[in-house]
């Protein structure tokens, strides 16, 4: 959805750092970062994003019973969309708490519940897949995962396929680049660099190029 890509650019959730790479959760060194946490600070744009997530979930996962956010960036989006849909929600921690109830999965879910996982963004998909697998292992029926943005990295596609997980995103790297080009948000030379990097993020030659 180009309107969502436009929001990410307008609120400057997307930033470029051609000289000093961002280090991602997966360890990948990247010239681009998409900070979806910033969406929360813009009520109008936030509502457009959460409405779109609601519509995506309602359209693709008609039997959904629970929304589960991924810690931490997926949690607020899961909460807002669950509220809009009148659904119960919870969240999954990256690791078990070492005190209190020692939970990894938080919230009250009925046995075998049909769950949709809400993530803010897919890079390699590793974080949200880990959440989906934890929910499956606990006996829940994971219908799929949704996110606001995906880089559409081949690695993510491979990981989702390997784990037999259905996934959808509101917008993606290709749309972002298209809108950035149309609005002259990013210079042509930067776009070429980004496209080259995305082909093979493990090739770090762009850093000094
Ligand atoms: O698809 P992946 O390769 O797993 O990368 C994407 C994940 O990385 C970011 O989380 P981060 O670990 O930075 O933490 P946060 O959610 O707590 O901010 C992002 O919010 C996703 O959860
Ligand atoms: O992979 C990540 O860690 C990551 C990438 C990105 O663009 N934004 C983000 O919040 N995390």
Automatic annotation (TrEMBL):
Q: Where are the transmembrane segments?
A: none
Name a Pfam family for this protein: Pribosyltran
Q: Which UniProt keywords apply?
A: Glycosyltransferase, Magnesium, Pyrimidine biosynthesis, Transferase
Q: Which pathway does it operate in?
A: Pyrimidine metabolism; UMP biosynthesis via de novo pathway; UMP from orotate: step 1/2
Q: Name one GO biological process term.
A: pyrimidine nucleobase biosynthetic process
SUPFAM superfamilies per UniProt: PRTase-like
Claim: Metal-binding is one of the keywords in the record: no
Query: Quaternary form?
Result: Homodimer.
Per the entry, what this protein does is: Catalyzes the transfer of a ribosyl phosphate group from 5-phosphoribose 1-diphosphate to orotate, leading to the formation of orotidine monophosphate (OMP).
Protein name as catalogued = Orotate phosphoribosyltransferase
Q: Which organism is it from?
A: Anaerosphaera multitolerans
